[in-house]
Design goal:
Blueprint (H helix, E strand, L loop, with lengths): L1 H11 L2 H12 L1 H9 L23 H8 L14 E4 L3 H12 L4 E4 L11 E4 L2 E4 L5 E2 L6 H9 L6 E3 L3 E8 L5 E7 L3 H11 L4 H16 L3 H7 L2 H10 L3 H8 L2 H8 L3 H8 L14 H12 L3 E4 L4 H13 L3 E3 L4 E6 L5 E8 L2 E6 L2 E4 L3 H8 L2 H6 L7 H5 L4 E10 L2 H4 L5 E5 L4 H10 L2 H4 L6 E5 L8 H4 L3 E10 L16 H22 L7 E7 L1 H8 L18 H6 L9 E3 L9 H16 L3 H11 L1 H12 L1
Parallel strand pairs: 1-2, 1-14, 2-10, 7-16, 14-20
Antiparallel strand pairs: 3-4, 5-9, 6-9, 7-8, 11-12, 12-13, 15-18, 15-19, 16-17, 17-18
The chain binds flavin-adenine dinucleotide and 2-acetamido-2-deoxy-beta-D-glucopyranose (NAG) (2 copies).
Flavin-adenine dinucleotide (FAD) binds next to helix 5, strand 15 and helix 26.
InterPro entries: Amino_oxidase, FAD/NAD-bd_sf, Retinol_saturase
GO molecular function, one term: oxidoreductase activity
Pfam families: Amino_oxidase
Length: about 625
């Protein structure tokens, strides 16, 4: 063994040698693919079943029958192949892929409806989204779209939003404010619009776009590193073959941006999208930043027809079709292990009653911290070689937020609302203003200018909205805040946290709404419903330890090539697999990709290759024909 290790180290010192070695190892993927494909059937062998037709106007009662199936012992299917903890897109996609491969999977969700961040709620006749405002990469023919079409039997439809997917508002001073559209559908359009607004900044803009393109061209290792065996990934990192990618992960976002231009407004426009992953530019890797922006710039943004709850609504029937199910109000309190340390199932605790459910595989969508620090026995967590290098990262609180849910009288047209999101920055030095803000006390912060106010109008995005909610609109406002400001009420029951909490919450909310109204004064007298969620609400509904909205912190260390390779779906605890945003990155697409990784680990085959093969062999054509025939 020692000799082998020495030999590998020796080879690793010579990039060319390792290059050859890595190419040799590249053969590993096809070989591994063909060797393993016999064990479990490809999830993409089954034909999709009949599309139910354009049913996006499903009434709420029948939709709730699918989304809100309450946990009861008699509803637990027998002979389960796998249990999934959590029904976010990471959990549902893993379960649906396994179901397509003929496995029987039970998804357990602690909240009272399925979907995680994709869930919507209804209050006083209004419908609100909670955690999806736009998704990139959903154009016809993309891998992601193909996967979702397949997993939902073509029942989930996507609506392309306007080419301008975001607006950035920068208040450089009390009197000067600029509004810049961010345009998707290719780098050219993105560049052109910025040039129109910053004609003197051609060099900076072209430089930035070049870097975005580079990040796109060299992004492939970030997925591959999680799919190859760890030692092959290690060789790949050392080989010199992916140095362009490694360099991008080592660049700091703030340094890159400040190095390109002195114009503070333009710096803010380059930086704005950090709010989509929550880590200030000073602490993030440029690769992460560019990947998030590229996600939307490439082909614009999309929204599920019928609202974001359609995602779970269309995935659950697939899981049920192979004998599995999705049960809500089912908080998992423990992962059960046998004497040898192998996973054998989970325990659901309800009203002090414990129900043990058994399956040879458990896939957790509950996040890294929850899974290791709260669901596994402590001694198992401490012994895990997988978790050890991640413990520091898991202890850091990730970004958290306050959410305002505002119900408005009037249609999209009457209120002049855009499908594009608005990022409103109260200064042109976002990194400083945001870091300073988070360092304030709660009393200071609640009446201070909020550095970032995100405002979005889901009612302007869904083509079925006006039919479903005539004469109404909704606005969601998000501000990034500090968990510590609210943590003292952590142990109090929801709705019973007392006057101090309600008072603080109101001050924060009034401040954010006032800043929002400066950009949308027409909404001032149209408010019919107004509610506020704090990090404690996020904790309650999403089950995150400190109200995180994007899971783990997206800082520099998390996206180093070594860490990228280390954080994978397969853990060192036999039978325990991870899925969801902590495995890859936050965002719908990130969590969905984690679903591919998790199902690969569970099926012991490369599901991503299955997907690519399906695309190459059958492509969209066959699916299109199927759809046409059925319509
Ligand atoms: C406010 C907000 C805005 C966002 N905007 C966008 C956007 O515009 N575009 C985009 O792409 N992404 C956006 N995101 C990010 C995206 O929604 C998430 O990254 C993604 O949906 C996470 O999916 P997941 O499966 O990892 O986790 P989640 O959706 O969080 O699902 C985890 C589930 O596990 C459940 N759970 C936890 N513990 C237990 C337990 N012990 N037992 C049972 N169940 C448990 C939780 O209740 C939850 O339902 C946003 C997120 C938020 C919060
Ligand atoms: C998506 O973007 C790529 C590159 O920008 C382009 O070649 C392709 O045609 C786009 N596809 C769609 C459907 O817009
Ligand atoms: C930044 O660019 C904008 C648009 O060209 C311009 O109006 C502004 O004055 C510039 N700011 C500085 C500090 O140069």
């Amino acid at each position: 063994m020692a000799f082998l290790y020495q030999a590998i180290l020796l080879v690793a010192d010579y990039p060319i040698l390792t290059g050859i070695f890595t190419i040799f190892c590249g053969l590993f993927i096809p070989v591994a693919y063909f060797l393993t494909s016999g064990f479990a059937p490809s999830p993409f062998k089954k034909a999709t079943s009949k599309r139910k037709g354009p049913a996006r106007l499903t009434d709420r009662t029948s939709k709730d029958k699918i989304l809100k199936q309450g946990f009861a012992t008699k509803k637990i299917p027998q002979n389960l192949d796998a249990i999934v903890i959590g029904s976010g897109i990471g959990g549902l996609s893993s379960a649906a892929i396994l179901s397509k491969a003929g496995k029987r999977v039970l998804v357990l969700e602690q909240h009272d409806q399925a979907g995680g961040s994709c869930h919507t709620f209804h209050e006083k006749g209004y419908e609100f989204d909670t955690g999806i405002h736009y998704i990139g990469g959903m154009q016809d023919g993309s891998d992601m779209r193909l996967l979702l079409d397949y997993l939902t039997d073509n029942n989930l439809e996507w609506h392309k939003l306007s080419d301008t997917f975001d607006y950035v508002h920068v208040d450089s001073s009390k009197t000067q404010s600029t509004k810049i559209p961010i345009v998707g559908g290719g780098f050219e359009g993105y560049k052109e619009t910025l040039l129109q607004h910053f004609p003197q900044e051609e060099k900076a803009i072209c430089g930035f776009v070049d870097l975005l393109e580079e990040a796109r061209a060299y992004s492939w290792p970030c997925g591959i590193l999680k799919m190859l065996p760890t030692w092959v990934s290690w060789l790949l990192i050392k080989s010199g073959l992916i140095n362009r990618y490694i360099l991008l992960t080592q660049k700091n976002t703030l340094d890159v941006i400040q190095g390109l231009t002195d114009n503070k407004t333009l710096q803010t426009v380059f930086a704005y999208v950090f709010a989509d992953y929550g880590t200030p530019p000073k602490y993030s890797s440029f690769f992460t930043h560019a990947t998030v922006l590229n996600h939307f710039v490439k082909n614009g943004s999309y929204y599920p027809v019928g609202g974001t709850s359609e995602i779970a609504h269309c995935l659950i029937p697939t899981i049920e079709e192979s004998g599995g199910g999705v049960l809500v109000r089912a908080p998992v309190s423990k992962i059960l292990l046998d004497l040898e340390g192998k996973v054998i199932g989970v325990c659901v605790t309800k009203n002090k009653e414990e129900v043990n459910i058994f399956a040879p595989t458990v896939i957790s969508d509950a996040g890294l911290w929850n899974t290791f620090e709260s669901l596994l026995p402590r001694e198992v967590m401490l012994k895990s070689k997988y978790y050890k290098p991640l413990r520091d990262l898991a202890q850091k609180p990730g970004a958290t937020a306050m959410l305002l849910f505002v119900g408005l009288k009037g249609t999209t047209e009457e209120l002049n609302l855009s499908p594009a999101n608005h990022f409103i920055y109260s200064s042109d030095d976002v990194d400083r203003s945001f870091t300073d803000y988070l360092a304030m006390t709660a009393q200071e912060a609640c009446t201070a200018e909020t550095p970032i106010v995100f405002a979005s109008f889901p009612s302007a995005k869904d083509p079925t909205w006006q039919q479903r909610y005539p004469g109404q609109s909704v606005c969601t406002v998000i501000t990034l805040v500090n968990w510590e400001w609210f943590s003292r009420w952590e142990d109090q029951r929801i709705m019973h946290r007392g006057e101090d909490y309600e008072g603080l919450k109101k001050k924060f909310a009034d401040q954010a709404w006032e800043q929002c109204l400066r950009k949308f004064p027409q909404l001032a007298d149209k408010v019919e419903y107004f509610d506020v969620g704090t990090p404690l609400s996020n904790k309650f509904y999403l089950g995150t330890p400190r109200g995180e909205i994007y899971g783990l912190e997206h800082d520099f260390s998390r996206f180093s090539p070594e860490m990228t390779s280390h954080v994978r779906a397969q853990t060192d605890i036999p039978g325990l697999i991870l899925t969801g945003q902590d495995v890859f990155s936050c965002g719908f697409a990130g969590a969905l990709f984690a679903g591919i990784l998790a199902s690969s680990a569970a099926l012991n085959r490369l599901v991503f290759i299955d997907l690519i093969l399906k695309k190459q062999l059958f492509g969209q054509k066959r699916d299109k024909k199927e759809i046409e025939l059925e319509e």
